[in-house]
Structures are given as structure tokens and as C-alpha cells.
Amino acid sequence: MELQDIAWHQSVGQLIDSLDAPNFWVRLVRLLEHYLPFDSWVALLFSADRPVVLAESPTSDGRPDPLFQDYINGVYLLDPFYIASRENGQDGLVRLDDVAPECFEQTDYYRLYFRLNVVADELQINCQIDADRTLCLSLGSQQRFTPAQVALLSLIQPWIRGLMRQRLRFEEGLVAASAVPTWQHRLEATSQRSEMPLTSREMDVARLVLSGCSGKEIARKLDISIETVKVHRKHIYTKLNIKSQSELFAVFFKAN
Q1: Sequence-ordered alpha helix ranges (H) in 126-172
Q2: Ramachandran class of 74: left when φ > 0, alpha when ψ lies in -120 to 50, beta otherwise
Q3: CA–CA gap between residue 26 and residue 150 (Å, rounded)
Q4: Rounded distance, CA 140 to CA 117, Å?
Q5: CA atoms of 36 and 19, how far apart (whole Å)
Q6: Cβ–Cβ under 8 Å, residues 179 and 49
Q7: Of the candidates 252, 239, 240, which has an alpha carbon nearest to the alpha carbon of residue 210?
Q8: Among residues 168, 172, 198, which one has the least CA distance to residue 184?
Q9: Which of 144, 179, 185, 207 is the most buried (most CB within 10 A)?
Q10: Which residues form the HTH luxR-type domain (predicted)?
Q11: 213 CA to centre of own chain
């Protein structure tokens, strides 16, 4: 056993002792910083309702990050990690490359939120609590994580997930997060102002378009043809009186 191994076991033991401490998440993140570099982090709970933030990295002036507030207020609905957790929640380490849609970097969500808030890459350790809830620790970086860094985090993430699961019982007010209108309700409220409201299938297509899915990905997810996707997209633009994906994002963002 090497000195680094001994230091790891000592640190994990200290974290177990501090499971009920207010600074648990900070101590956990500081331990991870010894093994890989990252620039931002957030611990949150995903469910069918608004995500619950348990702890987050502070800004330089100690104030809440307005970009992150936008995320909580509704932009999370376009987050590839949130979408993946709702579609097929699972334990373990998840990389941005694993969940990002084909056209993710072409979306306004990427340009106006992700690139400014996360910058380059993101890793997320998921702990599936039950069929509806996923406890997550996300690590954002201004540089791409290297294969060696990903491999190391993958090696130690079972320890991290175990600590996260045990920590959850000490968190308070998790059920206090009130349900918020879904993206369907937000877009529907806007479409109601026109003479032709969006159909439920058009809502599905609109969400997938905003999240960065290509026509092929949308067709696969909804089990329809690419031509049908094109027809739905044309109807969406006509009904909302818009001409581009950027205008569709503006409609969604203003509805939040």
C-alpha cells in the first residue's frame, strides 16, 4: 500500500464521520480535487419536479450565479444530463459525450448557457435513489477531461456514490421543492396566444429540437419518420410565428 492509498482511506473515513456535517459536500469536493482538476461543481437532486440544489461552488464574490438561477428556473429542461436521468436513470459516472445530442453545440442552450457556465466539459456521478429520483454530483471544467482523469474518477466513483446515498438522509427540505409547470405548459401557454396551439407531439419535437437532437435522433426517440419530424417542425414555427431555432429558444426562455 502506497502513501497515496493511505491518504485516500483516511480521507474517506473522515468523510464518513462528517456525513451529518453542514460542510459535507465541500469536504467531498476538496477530496476529489486531489485526484482531478475541475472549475465548478454542484450537488443536486433530479426528479420530475424542479431540481433541488443541495450545494454548489461559490462565485468569486460569494453571490448566487445568475446563470445557475436561470438553470433552476427552467433551463434545466434542456440539460442533457437531466434529460438522460429522466429517460433512463442509472447509477455511475456519466460523461457529457455520453448524453449530449448530436447537434448539442449548435443549440442556443449551449451557446447562451453551457459555454458560459461550464465552458468545455462536464462529468456527473449519479446515484439512483428510486425510480423517480437521481442524486447527482456534477463537475464542470474549462478544459476537456483526459481519458486518464475519467478512468480515475470511474475507479473511485463507487465510494463517492456510497457516501452520497448515505448523505441524503441528512438533507432537509428536499420534499419542499414545489412542482413547477413542465416545458409543455410553458410552450403551451405561449402557443395559446395564437389561433392554433401546439399539439402534444409538436411539444415533444420542440423540446428535442431545443435540446440539440438532430432530425434523425428525434425520429428515433419518437418512433416517427424524419419527414414527419420536418412537418412537425414546420408547424411549430408557423403556429408560434417564428422562423428559427433561436426564436424558439427565446419563446421557451421567456416562458420561464
Answers
A1: 147-168
A2: left
A3: 21
A4: 8
A5: 22
A6: yes
A7: 252
A8: 198
A9: 207
A10: 191-256
A11: 16
Distance CA 244, CA 96 (A): 26
Domain boundaries, the chain: 3-176, 183-254
> Which of 43, 29, 39 lies closest to 168, judged by CA?
43
CB 185 within 8 A of CB 203: no
Q: What is the pLDDT of residue 160?
A: 95
d(CA 131, CA 86): 9
Q: Which of 192, 186, 184 is nearest to 240 (CA)?
A: 192
Report yes or no on whether pTM surpasses 0.70. Answer: yes
In the numeric block, which cell numbers belong to residue 232?
412537425
Neighbour tally for 2: CB within 10 Å: 7
pLDDT tens-digit profile of 96-151? Answer: 999 999 999 888 888 888 887 777 899 999 999 988 899 999 999 999 999 999 99
Q: Which residues contact 124 (CB under 8 A, 6 or more apart)?
A: 81, 93, 94, 136, 137, 138, 139
Domain 183-254 annotated CATH 1.10.10.10:
yes
Residue type, position 181, single letter: P
As a CATH number, domain 3-176 is 3.30.450.40
Q: How confident is the model at residue 247 (pLDDT cuts 50, 70, 90)?
A: confident
Three cell numbers written together for 192 = 395559446
Rounded to an integer, what distance in angstroms lies between the CA atom of residue 31 and that of residue 2? 17
The dihedral built from the CA positions of residue 18, 19, 25 and 28, taken in this order, carries a sign that is: positive
Orientation of helix 200-211 relative to helix 245-254, angle to 10°:
110
